[in-house]
């Protein structure tokens, strides 16, 4: 599969049709929503010699924003969250259903949508120039900044204490930093393989 | 894919999904408006009765809130110490009752029925040029694609193991994402060939 040259396949043309989402965009959104789901399944990846299972679900969110751009990236996250809400146990730890959205960490889940959108916006803002450092910065701002900006206050509100919320944020921060590095490196590779994947933001000054 | 839904024939199973969702919305809103220990007592009775209406024992209800055990164990004494027992009961009660009630809706409602409610809810999006049928296609398509991407991930993992590169995260994620994009392209071609863009 990977031996196929990307040159042989037709280029990915975003927004071909008049509708809000062309068939090729639809396929990309579905595939990345599924990727976010699969990265949360148990046994997907084990760090430190298969002793510590770590979840890569937020890595999927960062990849969706970095590779698909703000619109399709945010949509992929929304599709994933809708499937979790209607009862598929796709959230890390095999969780699913409406109960997830009644819990304390719902702010983080909603934050993923805006996080992916922010990452996509930042990456697209600089296209056609693409740098791994800029993508890294975009992932720090969107994947950590925006996600925590929504996640932490909701947690404070739900738990009635700021202490526990900050402790949980500190607990997840090191892993998220590692995911930013992985996402940026992987997104750079994908953009090299599929340069037409992502369109620059429309120029407002013609 | 096995969802959260559990088959049954109780009154709650037969209630339309939209009605249950609306009831859940009203219930959680009331919990947030009337923040008092009495509300939590009434709410607990309502939730236990609702589980009984679905022919579930309190054990099933406990299973639904079990993932929150650590939050409750740590949060309750902490809140009691900081803000008194009333605040502790309200904060923990709101959380546990909302999760239990939401869990009950998921237990008694088929995934397809909930998808139908979503399809119905997004009909007004037509006016902002979002095609509800296309959204429905996207959702069902993704359910079908999850096992495909899962197989693809396992293939990459086996290949990585065969090459003795088990520790490299990049040697794992990069091929997974490249193959995911490749699959999406072929899927897009198939959709175009079936006239989805026409």
UniProtKB/TrEMBL annotation, chain A:
Gene3D superfamilies (UniProt xref): 1.10.1760.20
Localization in the cell: Cell membrane
Name of a matching Pfam family: BioY
Stretches that traverse the bilayer: 26-48, 75-92, 98-123, 130-151, 171-194
Gene Ontology cellular component list: plasma membrane
Membrane topology: Multi-pass membrane protein
Keywords: Cell membrane, Membrane, Transmembrane, Transmembrane helix, Transport
InterPro entries reported in the protein's UniProt record: BioY
Molecular-function GO term, any one: biotin transmembrane transporter activity
Keyword Cell membrane among record annotations: yes
Stated name of the protein: Unannotated protein
Organism lineage: unclassified sequences, metagenomes, ecological metagenomes
UniProtKB/TrEMBL annotation, chain B:
Keyword Membrane annotated: yes
Ranges that cross the membrane: 21-38, 44-66, 78-105
Subcellular location: Membrane
Membrane topology: Multi-pass membrane protein
Pfam families membership: CbiQ
Keyword Transmembrane helix: yes
Entry GO CC: plasma membrane
Keyword tags: Membrane, Transmembrane, Transmembrane helix
Alphabetized PANTHER family for the sequence: PROTEIN ABCI12, CHLOROPLASTIC
Protein name stated in the entry: Unannotated protein
Source organism of this protein record: freshwater metagenome
């Amino acid at each position: 599969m990977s031996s196929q040259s990307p040159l042989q396949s037709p280029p990915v043309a975003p927004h071909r049709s008049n509708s809000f989402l062309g068939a090729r965009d639809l396929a990309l959104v579905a595939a990345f929503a599924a990727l976010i789901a699969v990265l949360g399944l148990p046994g997907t990846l084990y760090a430190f010699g298969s002793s510590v299972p770590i979840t890569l679900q937020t890595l999927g969110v960062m990849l969706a924003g970095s590779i698909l751009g703000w619109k399709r990236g945010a949509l992929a996250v929304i599709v994933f969250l809708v499937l979790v809400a209607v009862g598929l146990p796709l959230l890390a730890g095999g969780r699913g259903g409406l109960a997830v959205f009644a819990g304390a960490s719902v702010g983080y889940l909603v934050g993923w949508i805006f996080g992916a959108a922010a990452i996509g916006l930042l990456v697209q803002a600089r296209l056609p120039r693409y740098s791994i450092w800029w993508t890294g910065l975009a992932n720090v701002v969107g994947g950590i900044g925006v996600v925590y900006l929504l996640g932490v206050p909701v947690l404070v509100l739900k738990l009635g204490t700021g202490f526990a919320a900050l402790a949980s944020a500190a607990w997840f921060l090191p892993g998220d930093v590692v995911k930013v590095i992985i996402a940026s490196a992987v997104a750079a590779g994908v953009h090299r393989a599929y340069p037409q994947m992502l369109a620059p933001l429309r120029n407002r000054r013609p | 894919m096995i969802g959260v839904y559990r088959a049954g024939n109780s009154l709650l199973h037969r209630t339309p999904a939209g009605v249950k969702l609306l009831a859940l919305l009203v219930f959680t809103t009331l919990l947030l408006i009337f923040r008092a220990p009495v509300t939590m007592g009434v709410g607990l009775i309502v939730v236990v009765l609702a589980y009984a209406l679905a022919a579930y024992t309190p054990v099933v209800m406990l299973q639904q809130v079990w993932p929150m055990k650590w939050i409750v164990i740590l949060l309750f004494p902490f809140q009691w110490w900081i803000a008194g027992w009333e605040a502790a009961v309200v904060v923990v009660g709101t959380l546990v009752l909302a999760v239990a009630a939401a869990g009950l809706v998921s237990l008694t409602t088929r995934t397809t029925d909930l998808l139908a409610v979503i399809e119905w809810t997004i009909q007004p999006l037509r006016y902002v040029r979002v095609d509800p049928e296309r959204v429905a296609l996207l959702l069902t398509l993704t359910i079908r694609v999850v096992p495909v991407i899962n197989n693809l991930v396992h293939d990459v993992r086996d290949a990585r193991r065969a090459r003795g590169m088990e520790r490299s995260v990049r040697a794992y994620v990069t091929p997974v994402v490249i193959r995911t994009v490749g699959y999406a392209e072929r899927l897009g071609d198939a959709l175009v060939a079936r006239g989805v863009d026409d």
